[in-house]
C-alpha cells in the first residue's frame, strides 16, 4: 500500500499550476491537503503521473462583498469554525463542518480537494448544492463557473476537464432573514454519512418564503428536494408541515440497497432527517 | 528524485527522495525515527500523526517531497527518551496505553489539544476529549485511560501554570 | 516454605514497559532492518475459487532493478497442516503458496522480492495470474449442501467436521419441561485487528546454519517448532523472536503459512527477507473470527428452572484450518462452554465447521465464547420474557451457587461469585432499569438495560487439549529466574508481552517472593534463544500460569537465599524473612543481611556458602494449567438509548462486575477488562466482514471495517469481586479475554429490552436496530 511512481511539481503561482496541468492533461492532478487523493494513491486506485502541489498558492481566504461569499480552494475545513461570515449567514454550512472527519482531517483537508474528489456523501459537496454555489474552475483556457448541481456528475466524477482545477467556490449570501440546519447520521463520528440533510430557509412574517433542501445518501451525488422545497414555500414556521415535506421527498427517491444499508432504511432515515432538519431550521428562524 | 531539506526534531538534513515516498517512510527510514508508526496507510487510524510546521498531520497521507523546508516534530521530540512530557507521564499513570503501537499518534494528536486547553485555562469535558481523539484508533485500552490521561495532563498543566 | 506477605502483588504499580512505548523507542517488527535485506510483496488471489491456469512472471524481466519471484511450483509440498485427531474430520492442507487452485480472495499465489518495498510492490503488479473460476461456496447453507463443489480433492461435501457432546438425561428433561423455547442466534464475521498488522523478517546465517525469524507473534516457540518440522531444520538452529508486538488479541496466536514461507525464502535466496503486512492484506487474509449460527432449545420447568438444553452449532470456517487450534476448535468451544454458569444436568450439542471460500477462521479474544455467551444470554432473556419473569430473577433461580460444581459435561468449576456478581450489578443499574421501564411507552426514544452473565474457562491445562486432540497439545508456561551477583533479577519468561503489562506484573510476583522491589526485576520475553519453551500468550493464562511459574521459580531462589542467610545469621532457614531487600531473622529485626550481599556470596564469595551448597541463584519452573481450567466469572450490563426513528443507538453506560481471583495489579486488570469490553462493543455494534455472493470481500479498509472510536464509547465502569482459586499458586484466574465476551450479549439484551423484541443477530448497527424498531414506528 504505497503509491505508484509520479513526478512532483510545486506550483509557484496559479498560472504556473495551470500551465503544468495543461501540459499533463489527464495524467496530472493538483494536490492540496491530500486527505482524499493520497489514500486512493496508496491503494493504487489513483495513479496520476504528475502531481501539481498547489499548497503555496494564495487560494486560502474566505471573503464576502455582501452579495457573494468566496472561499478559496485551499481553505482548510477548520477555518470555518471561527469565521463570522459562515456563522452569521450559513448556519447549515457551519453545522456540516462539525461532521467532517476528525480534527486532523479538518486541519489539513481543503474545500477544493473535497469537492474535486466528489465522494457522494462529502459534507461540503452537499453544502455547495444546498447554497446554490458556483464552483470556479480555472485552466489555461480561462475561468469556468459551474453550478454545483452541474458540477457533481456521479460518485467521484465531476465536470472538471483535464487541465482544469477548482480555485474557489462562490455562495450567494442569503438575506438576513434566513437560517438553516444540517443533520447527518453516520455509523461512527466522522464516518462518511449514511445520509445527511441540509436545509436553508428564508422567512418573513412567520412564514417560509424560500426553502432549499439537499440530501446526501439518496443518490450518487447530493440532490435537491425540489418538490418539498416548493411545498414549504409560504408555510408557517411552526414546522407543522415538516413531516409532509419529508414524506414528499422520501417517496420521490430511489436509494441504493447495499451492504451498508438497505434501501428501505435509507428512505426511512432520509425522511426522518429531512423532517428534523426542517424543524431545526424553523426553530432557529423562530429564535431569530 | 528530488532534493528536499527537512528540519526534524531540531536536526536539519538535505536528502534526495523519490517524490512518491511517504513522509512516514522517510522519517522512519532516513531519520530512523521508530516512533512514527504506520497503522493503516490510508489516513484512517492516526498512528502516524506527526507535527508539520506545528500542526498535527497524518504522515501516511503526506509526501516527503511536499515538506521541503518544513519543520517536523515526532514523538521522540516531545518528552525525550524518558517520555517526560506531562501528557506522556499521565498516559503512564492512567494506563493510557497497552501495546503502545497507537500511542505516539495519540500523543502527537493530543499534545496540542492539552496545550490549547491549558491556554484556555479549563479542563475539557469527556465528550470534548473524545472528539479531539476521534481520528485515532486504539484497540487495546478502550480509550478510558487515554481520556483520564488527557484530563490529568490538563490539570497538571493548569497547576504548574505552564 | 510459606510465601512472604504480599507487598507488590495487588499494588497499583505503573508499568515499566511504558517509557519505551511512550518515547518512540520501542522496537516493533517494522523496525527490524538487516543488511542486504529483500522486501517481499505478495501476489494474492483476486478470485475466491478458481483453478490457476497460469502464473505469468515474464513482465519482471523488463524491470530495471533485480527481483526474485516464487510461485506454488517452487514451494510445492510445503504447507500448513492443522489437523485435529478426529476420525471424521476432513483434512486439508494450506500450501505456502497456492498450488493449482485458489480458495479465497487474498490467498497468496506468488511472492516477489526486491531490494526496496515500493519496488517490490511495483514488481508484484506485473505478475499476471490466469484463473478458471469455479462455483463458490459462499455461506453455511451452501456449504452444508452435499452437492456443493468440494473445496478440496477427495472431500465429500464441505462439512469439515461434525461431532456431538452430551451429558445427563435429556429425555427426562424434555418430559418434565413445561416450556420448550427454541431460538436461532447468529454472530457475524469479525476479527481482532491489532493496530500493528503482522510482519515477518527472516535471516539465515550460512556459517552457523542458524535461521533467525522475527515475527509479530504471540507464540514464538510454536513458530519455531513448526518451522523445524516443515523445513527439516533442528530447533536448536532456529531462533524465533517476537519483538515489541503492537497488539495481538488472538490474531497473532496462530502459526501462519507466511512465517514458514519467509523462513524458507531467506534460506533460498541467502538474503534476509522482510514482509510487513499492509492493512488490506490484514483485513482480507490474516485471520477472521466468529461467524456462528446456533440453534438452541431449552427445556424449562413450570417454576422457571432450566432442566436441559440442546444446541446445534455451525461455524463458517472459511477455506483453511488454522494451526494450532484447527477448524474444530471454534465450534467445539461453543459446545463445551454453552452450559455456562447455570445449574442443569441434561445437555446435548451438535457442532460442525463448514468450509467456504473465505478467509480462515482463527482465534480472537474470547475464542467462540462471545458468540456462545451471546446465544446463551439472549436465550436466558428470551425464556424470561416468555415466562414473564425478570431476567435477573430468572438467572438467580438457575445460577450455580455451590462450589466446586461438576457441570453436565463433567467439567469441575472452582469457586466463583456468580450470584454475588449478579446481585451487585442489579444494584448498580437499578436506576437505569427504572428509567428504561418509564421510556417503554415512548415512541421516539427508548432506553434499554441488558445484562450478560458468564463464566470463562481460563488457564486450562494439558488434559483439556489432550481431550480435544488438538495440535496445540499442551498448555504450560515456563519461567527461568536468575539473580545476579548484584542482587538484580532477570526473568526469562515463556509468555510474550504485547500490551498485557507482563514486564510489570511478573516483576511484582518475583519481588514478593524474593523480598526485593519490582524495579529490581527485569523481565525478558519473546525470544526463543533466551526463554524457556512455552506455548505463548493466549487463552487467559499469563497471570495465573506465567505468574504461577515465576512465583515457583522465585520461591526456589528465595529458599536458597534463606538457607544462606540462616547459615550466616546462625538461624534456621525457616526463621528467615525476605523483605525490603533484607534477609532478617524473624522476631529479631536487628539480625539481618542485605539480599544483594547474599547474591554476591552465592556467586562471588562462594567460600562463605554453607558446606556442600552449589554456587548460583538460578531456578526454572514450568506450570501447567488445571485439567479443567480455572473459571473466572463476570456480569456485564449495558444501558442503551435508541432513537426509534433513525436506529441510532447510544451506549449510555457499560458496567462490569468481574471476578478473576487474585488481582496482580489493578491498573493492568482494569485496563484489560476495559479494552476487552470495547472490542466487544465493536463486535456488538460496528464490526463486520462482509462478502458478496461471489465471495469478494467488501470490507477491505478502515473506511468499511468499523472499529469503535472514542466518541462512541462511554467510560467503562469496572467493579471487582476477588475469589482466589485454589488451583493456581497465587489464586489468580485468567482475565485477558473476559472483557470481550459479554458485550454482544449485554448490548443485544439492552436493545431487546428497549424495543420489546427478541434480538437474533449481531452486529446491531443503525440499520439493524431501525429494523428491529419497525413495530414501534408502525404503531404510531
UniProtKB/TrEMBL annotation, chain A:
Q: Which InterPro entries match?
A: CO_DH_flav_C, CO_DH_flav_C_dom_sf, Diverse_Substr_Oxidored, FAD-bd_PCMH, FAD-bd_PCMH-like_sf, FAD-bd_PCMH_sub1, FAD-bd_PCMH_sub2, Mopterin_DH_FAD-bd
Pfam families with a match to the protein in the record: CO_deh_flav_C, FAD_binding_5
Q: Name one GO molecular function term.
A: oxidoreductase activity
**UniProt xrefs under SUPFAM superfamilies:** CO dehydrogenase flavoprotein C-terminal domain-like, FAD-binding/transporter-associated domain-like
Q: Which organism is it from?
A: Pseudaminobacter salicylatoxidans
Q: Which domain of life is it from?
A: Bacteria
Q: Which residues form the signal peptide?
A: none
Q: Which UniProt keywords apply?
A: FAD, Flavoprotein, Oxidoreductase
Q: What is this protein called?
A: Carbon-monoxide dehydrogenase medium subunit
Q: Where is the FAD-binding PCMH-type domain?
A: 1-176
Automatic annotation (TrEMBL), chain B:
Query: Which residue ranges run through the membrane?
Result: none
- Any one Pfam family here would be Fer2_2
UniProt keyword terms in alphabetical order: 2Fe-2S, Iron, Iron-sulfur, Metal-binding, Oxidoreductase
SUPFAM superfamilies per the record?
A: 2Fe-2S ferredoxin-like, CO dehydrogenase ISP C-domain like
InterPro entries membership: 2Fe-2S-bd, 2Fe-2S-bd_dom_sf, 2Fe-2S_ferredoxin-like_sf, 2Fe-2S_ferredoxin-type, Beta-grasp_dom_sf, Diverse_Oxidoreductases
- Per UniProt, residues of the 2Fe-2S ferredoxin-type domain are 2-78
**What are this entry's molecular-function GO terms?**
2 iron, 2 sulfur cluster binding; metal ion binding; oxidoreductase activity
| Name of the protein this chain belongs to | Carbon-monoxide dehydrogenase small subunit
UniProtKB/TrEMBL annotation, chain C:
Q: Per UniProt, which keywords does this protein have?
A: Molybdenum, Oxidoreductase
Q: Which residues form the Aldehyde oxidase/xanthine dehydrogenase a/b hammerhead domain?
A: 23-135
Top-rank lineage group of the source organism: Bacteria
Q: Name one GO molecular function term.
A: oxidoreductase activity
- Record carries keyword Oxidoreductase: yes
Cross-referenced Pfam families, in alphabetical order? Ald_Xan_dh_C, MoCoBD_1, MoCoBD_2
Which N-terminal stretch is annotated as signal sequence? none
Question: Which cofactors does the annotated protein need, by name?
Answer: Mo-molybdopterin cytosine dinucleotide
Record PANTHER family: ALDEHYDE OXIDASE 1-RELATED, XANTHINE DEHYDROGENASE
| Entry protein name | Xanthine dehydrogenase molybdenum binding subunit apoprotein
Query: What organism is recorded for this protein?
Result: Pseudaminobacter salicylatoxidans
Amino acid at each position: 500500500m504505497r503509491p505508484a511512481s509520479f513526478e512532483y511539481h510545486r506550483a509557484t503561482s496559479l498560472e504556473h499550476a495551470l500551465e503544468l496541468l495543461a501540459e499533463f492533461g489527464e495524467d496530472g492532478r493538483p494536490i492540496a491537503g491530500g486527505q482524499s487523493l493520497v489514500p486512493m494513491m496508496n491503494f493504487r486506485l489513483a495513479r496520476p503521473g504528475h502531481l501539481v502541489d498547489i499548497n503555496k498558492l494564495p487560494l486560502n481566504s474566505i471573503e464576502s462583498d455582501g452579495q457573494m461569499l468566496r472561499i478559496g480552494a485551499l481553505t482548510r475545513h477548520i477555518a470555518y469554525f471561527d469565521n463570522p461570515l459562515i456563522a452569521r449567514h450559513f448556519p447549515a454550512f457551519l453545522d456540516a463542518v462539525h461532521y467532517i472527519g476528525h480534527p486532523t482531517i479538518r486541519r489539513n483537508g481543503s474545500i477544493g480537494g473535497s469537492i474535486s474528489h466528489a465522494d457522494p456523501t462529502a459534507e461540503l459537496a452537499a453544502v455547495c448544492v444546498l447554497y446554490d454555489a458556483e464552483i470556479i474552475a480555472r485552466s489555461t483556457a480561462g475561468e469556468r463557473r459551474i453550478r454545483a448541481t452541474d458540477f457533481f456528475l456521479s460518485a467521484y466524477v465531476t465536470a472538471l476537464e483535464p487541465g482544469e482545477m477548482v480555485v474557489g467556490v462562490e455562495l450567494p449570501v442569503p438575506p438576513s432573514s434566513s437560517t438553516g440546519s444540517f443533520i447527518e447520521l453516520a455509523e461512527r463520528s466522522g464516518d462518511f454519512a449514511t445520509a445527511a440533510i441540509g436545509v436553508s430557509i428564508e422567512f418573513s412574517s412567520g412564514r417560509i418564503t424560500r426553502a432549499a433542501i439537499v440530501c446526501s445518501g439518496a443518490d450518487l451525488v447530493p440532490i435537491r428536494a425540489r418538490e418539498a422545497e416548493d411545498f414549504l414555500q409560504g408555510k408557517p414556521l411552526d414546522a407543522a408541515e415538516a413531516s409532509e415535506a419529508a414524506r414528499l421527498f422520501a417517496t420521490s427517491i430511489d436509494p441504493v440497497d447495499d451492504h451498508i444499508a438497505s434501501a428501505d432504511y435509507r428512505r426511512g432515515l432520509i425522511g426522518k432527517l429531512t423532517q428534523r432538519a426542517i424543524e431545526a431550521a424553523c426553530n432557529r428562524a423562530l429564535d431569530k | 528524485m528530488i532534493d528536499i531539506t527537512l528540519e526534524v526534531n531540531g536536526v536539519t538534513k538535505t536528502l534526495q527522495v523519490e517524490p512518491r515516498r511517504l513522509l512516514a517512510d522517510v522519517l522512519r527510514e532516513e531519520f530512523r525515527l521508530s516512533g512514527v508508526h504506520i497503522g493503516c496507510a490510508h489516513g484512517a487510524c492516526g498512528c502516524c500523526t506527526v507535527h508539520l510546521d506545528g500542526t498535527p498531520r497524518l504522515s501516511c497521507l503526506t509526501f516527503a517531497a511536499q515538506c521541503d523546508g518544513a519543520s517536523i516534530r515526532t514523538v521522540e521530540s516531545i518528552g525525550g527518551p524518558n517520555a517526560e512530557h506531562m501528557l506522556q507521564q499521565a498516559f503512564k499513570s492512567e494506563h493510557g496505553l497497552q501495546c503502545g503501537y497507537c500511542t505516539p499518534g495519540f500523543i502527537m494528536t493530543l499534545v496540542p489539544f492539552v496545550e490549547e486547553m491549558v491556554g484556555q485555562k479549563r479542563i475539557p469535558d469527556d465528550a470534548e476529549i473524545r472528539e479531539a481523539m476521534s481520528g485515532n484508533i486504539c484497540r487495546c485500552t478502550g480509550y478510558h485511560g487515554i481520556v483520564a490521561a488527557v484530563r490529568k495532563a490538563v490539570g497538571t498543566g493548569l497547576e504548574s501554570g505552564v | 516454605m510459606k510465601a512472604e506477605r504480599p507487598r507488590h502483588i495487588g499494588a497499583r504499580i505503573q508499568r515499566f514497559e511504558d517509557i519505551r512505548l511512550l518515547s518512540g523507542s520501542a522496537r516493533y517488527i517494522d523496525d527490524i532492518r538487516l543488511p542486504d535485506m529483500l522486501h517481499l510483496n505478495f501476489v494474492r488471489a483476486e478470485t475466491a475459487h478458481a483453478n490457476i491456469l497460469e502464473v505469468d512472471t515474464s513482465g519482471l524481466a523488463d524491470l530495471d532493478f533485480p527481483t526474485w519471484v516464487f510461485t506454488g511450483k517452487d514451494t510445492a509440498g510445503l504447507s500448513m497442516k492443522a489437523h485435529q485427531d478426529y476420525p471424521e474430520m476432513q483434512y486439508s492442507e494450506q500450501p505456502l503458496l497456492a498450488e493449482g487452485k485458489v480458495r479465497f480472495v487474498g490467498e497468496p499465489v506468488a511472492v516477489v522480492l526486491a531490494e526496496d518495498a515500493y519496488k517490490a510492490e511495483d514488481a508484484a503488479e506485473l505478475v499476471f495470474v490466469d484463473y478458471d473460476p469455479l462455483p463458490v461456496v459462499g455461506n453455511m447453507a451452501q456449504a452444508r449442501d452435499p452437492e456443493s463443489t468440494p473445496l478440496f480433492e477427495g472431500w465429500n461435501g464441505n462439512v469439515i467436521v461434525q461431532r456431538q457432546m452430551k451429558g445427563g438425561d435429556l429425555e427426562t428433561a424434555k418430559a418434565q419441561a413445561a416450556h420448550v423455547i427454541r431460538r436461532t442466534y447468529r454472530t457475524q464475521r469479525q476479527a481482532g485487528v491489532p493496530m500493528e498488522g503482522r510482519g515477518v523478517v527472516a535471516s539465515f546465517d550460512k556459517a552457523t546454519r542458524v535461521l533467525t525469524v522475527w515475527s509479530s507473534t504471540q507464540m514464538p516457540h510454536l513458530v519455531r517448532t513448526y518451522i523445524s518440522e516443515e523445513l527439516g531444520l533442528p530447533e536448536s538452529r532456529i531462533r524465533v523472536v517476537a519483538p515489541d508486538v503492537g497488539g495481538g488479541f488472538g490474531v497473532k496466536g496462530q502459526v501462519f503459512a507466511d512465517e514458514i514461507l519467509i523462513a524458507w525464502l531467506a534460506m533460498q535466496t541467502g538474503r534476509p527477507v522482510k514482509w510487513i503486512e499492509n492493512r488490506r492484506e490484514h483485513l482480507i487474509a490474516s485471520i477472521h473470527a466468529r461467524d456462528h449460527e446456533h440453534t438452541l432449545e431449552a427445556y424449562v420447568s413450570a417454576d422457571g428452572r432450566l432442566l436441559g438444553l440442546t444446541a446445534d452449532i455451525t461455524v463458517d470456517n472459511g477455506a483453511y484450518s488454522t494451526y494450532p487450534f484447527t477448524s474444530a476448535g471454534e465450534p467445539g468451544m461453543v459446545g463445551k462452554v454453552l452450559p455456562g454458569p447455570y445449574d442443569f444436568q441434561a445437555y446435548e450439542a451438535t457442532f460442525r465447521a463448514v468450509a467456504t471460500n473465505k478467509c480462515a477462521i482463527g482465534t480472537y479474544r474470547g475464542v467462540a465464547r462471545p458468540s456462545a455467551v451471546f446465544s446463551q444470554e439472549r436465550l436466558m432473556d428470551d425464556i424470561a420474557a416468555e415466562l414473564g419473569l425478570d431476567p435477573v430473577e430468572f438467572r438467580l433461580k438457575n445460577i450455580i451457587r455451590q462450589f466446586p460444581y461438576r457441570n453436565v459435561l463433567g467439567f469441575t468449576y472452582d469457586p466463583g461469585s456468580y450470584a454475588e456478581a449478579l446481585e451487585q450489578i442489579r444494584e448498580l443499574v437499578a436506576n437505569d432499569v427504572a428509567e428504561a421501564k418509564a421510556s417503554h411507552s415512548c415512541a421516539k426514544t427508548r432506553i434499554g438495560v441488558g445484562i450478560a452473565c458468564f463464566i470463562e474457562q481460563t488457564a486450562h491445562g494439558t488434559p483439556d487439549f489432550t481431550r480435544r486432540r488438538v495440535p496445540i497439545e499442551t498448555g504450560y508456561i515456563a519461567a527461568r529466574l536468575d539473580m545476579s551477583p548484584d542482587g538484580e533479577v532477570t526473568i526469562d519468561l515463556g509468555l510474550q508481552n504485547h500490551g498485557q503489562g507482563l514486564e510489570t506484573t511478573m516483576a511484582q510476583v518475583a519481588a514478593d517472593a524474593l523480598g526485593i522491589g519490582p524495579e529490581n526485576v527485569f523481565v525478558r520475553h519473546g525470544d526463543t534463544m533466551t526463554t524457556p519453551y512455552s506455548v505463548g500468550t493466549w487463552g487467559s493464562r499469563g497471570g495465573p500460569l506465567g505468574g504461577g511459574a515465576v512465583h515457583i521459580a522465585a520461591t526456589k531462589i528465595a529458599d536458597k537465599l534463606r538457607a544462606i542467610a540462616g547459615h550466616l545469621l546462625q538461624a534456621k532457614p525457616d526463621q528467615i524473612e525476605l523483605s525490603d531487600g533484607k534477609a532478617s531473622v524473624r522476631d529479631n529485626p536487628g539480625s539481618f543481611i542485605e539480599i544483594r550481599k547474599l547474591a554476591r556470596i552465592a556467586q562471588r564469595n562462594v567460600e562463605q556458602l554453607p558446606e556442600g551448597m552449589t554456587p548460583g541463584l538460578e531456578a526454572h519452573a514450568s506450570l501447567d494449567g488445571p485439567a479443567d481450567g480455572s473459571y473466572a466469572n463476570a456480569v456485564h450490563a449495558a444501558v442503551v438509548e435508541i432513537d426509534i426513528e433513525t436506529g441510532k443507538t447510544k451506549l449510555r453506560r457499560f458496567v462490569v462486575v468481574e471476578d478473576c481471583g487474585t488481582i496482580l495489579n489493578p491498573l493492568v486488570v482494569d485496563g484489560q477488562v476495559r479494552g476487552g469490553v470495547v472490542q466487544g462493543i465493536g463486535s456488538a455494534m460496528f464490526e463486520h466482514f462482509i462478502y458478496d455472493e461471489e465471495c469478494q470481500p467488501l470490507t477491505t479498509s478502515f473506511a468499511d471495517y468499523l472499529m469503535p472510536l472514542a466518541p462512541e464509547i462511554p467510560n467503562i465502569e469496572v467493579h471487582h469481586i476477588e475469589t482466589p482459586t485454589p488451583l493456581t499458586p497465587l489464586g489468580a484466574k485468567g482475565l485477558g479475554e473476559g472483557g470481550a465476551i459479554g458485550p454482544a450479549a449485554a448490548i443485544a439484551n439492552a436493545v431487546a429490552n428497549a424495543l420489546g423484541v427478541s434480538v437474533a443477530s449481531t452486529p446491531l448497527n443503525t440499520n439493524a436496530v431501525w429494523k428491529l424498531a419497525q413495530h414501534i414506528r408502525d404503531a404510531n
